[in-house]
Write a structure and sequence with these properties.
- The structure holds two protein chains of two kinds.
- By secondary structure, chain A is α/β, with parallel strands linked by helices.
- Chain A has a six-stranded mixed beta sheet with strand order 6-7-8-3-9-10, sandwiched between helices. A four-stranded antiparallel beta sheet of chain A has the order 2-1-4-5. Chain A has a four-stranded antiparallel beta sheet with strand order 12-13-11-14.
- The radius of gyration of chain A is 23 Å and the shape is globular.
- The two termini of chain A are 34 Å apart.
- By secondary structure, chain B is mostly helical.
- The longest helix of chain B has 47 residues.
- The chains are: A alpha/beta, B mainly alpha.
- At the A-B interface, helix 2, strand 6 and helix 3 of A face helix 1 and helix 6 of B.
Chain lengths: 292, 299
């Protein structure tokens, strides 16, 4: 286990920012943390980096306690902050060299490779860079050391669509290299795109763990019938069937030929089959908590 | 790894350091000129006009008169003899202007050290690397140990150059002669005072998250100390007991300049120990506070 949190809790006075978070992340996994603003995503990440002292519980990276043994824990982590601020009196390369020196890691020719990939002039002073360019520099310092764990707090903020895709592809490659990636976001599509698992937080609590492989097996089917049907005998693997007038809406987890054979028996006027997205699951928990 | 931080901090500070060092150097040059004019010309002219030295000394430095008390509180000690160039030159070591410049520099640097980094949001970037918080405080201590002696040395070089340019080192009149080597021990005192400012402000900085607020607290604290020290001399019955609680009371460089046997005087070492102790306690508290606190998200 690379990262483990046990009943990790952080209170600010009477406010509970994170409530008994239990999390286990294995090497090579890409994990997304989803949740609205104030749900505890950043607090969880900051506890893992030893920026905050847990009120109770603990977090550990490769067995190193994130507060008591935080230096050894952080040796295994590279981090991209959500609110990015850099040393404006440095150039891009000076910042990368400075942070590499602190890590006792000498940047290789990968610096130039990443600079070309991100299309950035690293010799430019940071003070003269746009926020997107600064983010690219910060991403370079996160990707260069190839640490076992990469933590990113809303990494695609301020990135243009091309750069966003480039970043997600880099994270996917990091996962393939065996690095673990943990990132927070509230953009569901990017989480769907690369994550192996997703944790949904609400008001500081972990409300759902979603395995993306099993989610990708679920199809959402919407059918419009040309005429009303007296009784619908749904086959196996059909779940959450809802009928409204001449419309059917359900989730399907079985083999596709079986579904098409059944639909062939119905007077289908229109048909939509799409992979089940995170949006529905996210909405489900969001609304559930909202109604409580 | 601490050296990487030290190099970076020195790189950040070099421009303000050069500006402050230049200002301190120029003040010494100016004060050397003033000293030369007063001790070689003005005092002589006043004496020729019938004003005796005793009269001037009484008006300007008498402890019984308000003017004397104020002047003494600012230029330091009853020991100052206005017709002696080295005595007059020593006033530049207690003059409020260089002390204010040094104080602002020390407070500004220490306020920037922790609260400033949190305020700017760069502390997250720094502490995401595998470094101990203690190393950050240690790096600032090392920088103080480099920067403060540099400023002290600049002051002394200023003293040396100005006394040389104004012919005070080689004057045939013993009263007008200045030996700049006599000023060297006083640098210890300046070092101790600036270190005290830095250490105490570092402690305030370790608790804060806003540079401006740390500036405010530190300047208020040291201004109160300065005023207590000044008014303690003007109203000794009411405030004298408070003076030892101020860093300015313990800043007594003229004792070290006027007395060749300064090192044999217990009071000199006592005052130096209090100042260095204040700085050291400040740094220790900064270290323990910073290592235990939460690192808040940038404002």
């Amino acid at each position: 286990m690379l990262l483990r949190t046990e009943q990790l809790t952080k209170n600010y006075g009477a406010v509970t920012a994170l409530d008994r978070l239990d999390l286990e992340v294995v090497p090579g996994e890409i994990v997304g943390i989803l949740g609205p603003n104030g749900s505890g995503k950043s607090t969880a990440l900051r506890l893992m980096l030893g920026f905050l002292k847990p009120t109770s519980g603990r977090a550990a990276i490769a067995g190193h306690d994130c507060w008591a043994d935080s230096v050894n824990a952080r040796r295994l982590v590279s981090y991209l902050p959500g609110e990015l601020r850099l040393y404006e009196n440095m150039t891009g390369i000076q910042l990368i060299n400075f942070l590499s020196d602190l890590r006792k890691h000498s940047p290789t020719d990968r610096v130039d490779q990443l600079a070309r990939l991100f299309d950035i002039d690293i010799q430019r002073p940071l003070a003269q860079m746009s926020s997107g360019m600064k983010r690219k520099i910060a991403l370079m310092q996160v990707l260069l050391p190839e640490t076992p764990l990469v933590i990113l707090d809303e990494p695609t903020n301020t990135l243009d669509p091309n750069m966003r895709d480039q970043l997600l592809s880099q994270l996917a490659q990091a996962g393939k290299r065996g690095q673990t990636v943990l990132f927070s976001s509230h953009v569901l599509t990017e989480v769907e795109q690369i994550c192996d698992r997703v944790a949904i937080l609400q008001r500081g609590r972990l409300v759902h763990w979603q395995d993306m492989a099993s989610l990708r097996k679920i199809r959402r089917v919407r059918v419009r019938l040309s005429q009303a049907v007296d009784a619908i005998a749904a086959p196996a693997h059909v779940e959450s069937l809802r009928t409204h007038a001449q419309e059917l809406d359900f989730q399907y987890t079985g083999p596709l030929p079986e579904l098409l054979r059944w639909l062939g028996e119905l007077p289908v006027a229109d048909l939509q089959i799409e992979p089940m997205g995170l949006a529905e699951i996210y909405q489900k928990y969001h609304q559930m908590i909202g109604s409580n | 790894m601490t050296w990487v931080l030290v190099r970076k901090l020195l790189r950040d500070i070099w421009l303000p350091l050069v500006v402050v060092a230049t200002l301190l150097f120029l003040f010494q040059i100016l004060w050397g000129r003033i000293t030369s004019r007063i001790t070689t010309q003005i005092i002589t002219d006043l004496q020729r006009a019938g004003l005796t030295l005793e009269f001037l000394q009484n008006v300007l430095l008498s402890r019984n008169e308000m003017i004397g008390q104020l002047v003494q509180a600012i230029i330091g000690g009853e020991q100052v003899e206005l017709n002696k160039s080295d005595n007059f030159m020593s006033i530049s070591y207690v003059h409020p202007l260089p002390l204010t410049i040094l104080g602002i520099f020390a407070i500004g640097r220490a306020a920037n050290a922790i609260a400033g980094e949190i305020d700017r949001g760069t502390m997250e970037l720094l502490l995401a690397q595998p470094i101990r918080r203690m190393q950050i405080v240690l790096a600032h201590l090392v920088v103080d140990m480099i920067v403060i002696p540099t400023l002290c040395l600049t002051i002394w070089i200023g003293t040396y150059c100005s006394t040389w340019w104004n012919g005070l080192q080689t004057s045939e009149n013993a009263m007008q002669r200045v030996d700049p080597m006599r000023f060297l021990p006083a640098l210890l005192c300046i070092f101790a005072l600036v270190f005290a400012h830095s250490g105490v402000t570092m402690w305030i900085s370790s608790m804060g998250r806003s540079r401006a607020r740390v500036w405010g607290w530190a300047i208020t604290l040291f201004l109160c100390m300065f005023l207590i020290n000044v008014f303690g001399q003007i109203l000794p019955e009411a405030l004298e007991w408070l003076r030892p609680l101020t860093v300015h009371y313990h800043y007594q460089p003229q004792q070290m300049i006027f007395n060749e046997d300064w090192y044999a005087r217990g009071s000199v070492w006592f005052h130096l120990s209090v100042l260095i102790g204040a700085g050291a306690v400040g740094y220790t508290l900064a270290w323990t506070t910073f290592c235990r606190r939460d690192l808040p998200a940038p404002l």
